[in-house]
Each structure stands twice: as structure tokens, then as C-alpha cells.
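INFO batch 0412 | record 1 of 1 | parsing
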Amino acid sequence: MSERPPREIVSRRTRPAKPPLSREIIVSTALDILARDGLSGLSLRRVATALDTGAASLYVYLANLNELHALMLDSALAAVSMPEAQNGSWRDRLKSVLKAYLRVLFERQGLAQLALSQIASGPNSLRIWETLLGLLKDGGADDVKAAWGLDLLTLYVTAIAAEQSVRRASGEGLDRVRTALSSISSEEFPLVFAARQALLSDSDDSQAGWGRGDWALDVIIDGVVGGPNPSVTSSAPKKRGKGHKR
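INFO prediction complete | emitting C-alpha cells
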């Protein structure tokens, strides 16, 4: 008898094997969904579906959606470029970091809105904080001024990125504002009427030149470095004396 040839085993799998789940893959997938569908289209269920798994599987790597948002923001901020120490003054380098921060938030749909609701504290965020604090201190700010100035500057840039992102998504720009100002009554709103051109000047120049933004950054930086010292109150709980009752 002749031997029968071994039977060929055909796999029933109709698609490639899934890559192993990890926090990095979850964050990367969530960022892709954010870029495609915006913040309103992002949920743990949507991320799980994209990864061909159940939402419960994600909780091995994440506490909740809020933690995913923080991880997404920090991951995206890896793209913020840092200036070379010898290139320009401390002010120029400070504004360079802030503009790079704005570009990263603006270029990915929904990221600026996410940044308004999150304080990312991962390694990429801390790298930016470290650089901004050092540059503000180079400009003469003490520790408290530098810390509060960091918060103020990043909040301003995040708000500008969010505003510009909404304009881009809507496709309307400032058309409604222009229409309103073009028909305004000089008798009812004399100051607004007189300032109507200035109110809209340089408002659409979101990236190139960014004259209004440059001016605003200089105003904030001047206030941080040369303004009054912050009045700092202790956040430590007060000790209770003997016999003190709740």
C-alpha cells in the first residue's frame, strides 16, 4: 500500500491575527478615532470596536475614559518641538515652544477641545513644563511667577487652538461676526462701531504671522515677568488645637 499524503490543514481564520492589546495601541487607536470623528465621536466602546475586542478588555489598561483622554493628550504632545538653547533670546524660545504647542493642538481635530478639559501630566507634558519654566526663569520670573505664568500661557494657547479648530470645522470663520458688525448702529453701540475694523483685524491669520497672537503672548509674558508678585496662601490644612471639635 502506498502512503496517503498528509492532509492539508486549512485555517478557519478569515482575517489576520490581532496584535496583542496594550496601552500604546489603545491610545494610538483612540487618537485615530479623534482625528476622524472628533471628541464627540470618541468613546471606550468605539475604541474597543476598532480593536475588535470588548470594552471590558480596555479596563485592564485604563481606569476610565478620563484617563484615556489624559494619555491621548500626552502622547500627541510628543510632537511639540523644543528650541535649541543657543537659538534666540529666552523670549523668542518661549514663544517658539508655545507656537509649536498651538500647532500640535490645532492640526489634530478635537485635540484642543480635549486639552481644555484635561491637565496632562505624562512625560511629554512634563518636558514642555520643564522647558517653559526654565525660559520664564531665564526672563527673571521667580518660582511662583514662573509656575502661574506657565498655567496662564498654556491656557491661552489652548483656548486659541480650540477657537480656531471650531472655526475650521464649521467652515464659517468670522462671517457672522462681520455681518453683525457691518450693520451695527453707531448711536446704540458707538464704541463697538468705532472699533469694528480693529475688532476683526488679524483675526483669521491663525498660523502665518500670527500677529494678534504674538502681541497677546508678549502682553502675558510682560505681565508674568514684570507684573506684581503673586499673593500665595498655604494650601496645607491647619492644625487643630487641643479640645477643638468638628
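INFO post-check: DSSP finds twelve helices and no strands in the chain.
INFO record closed
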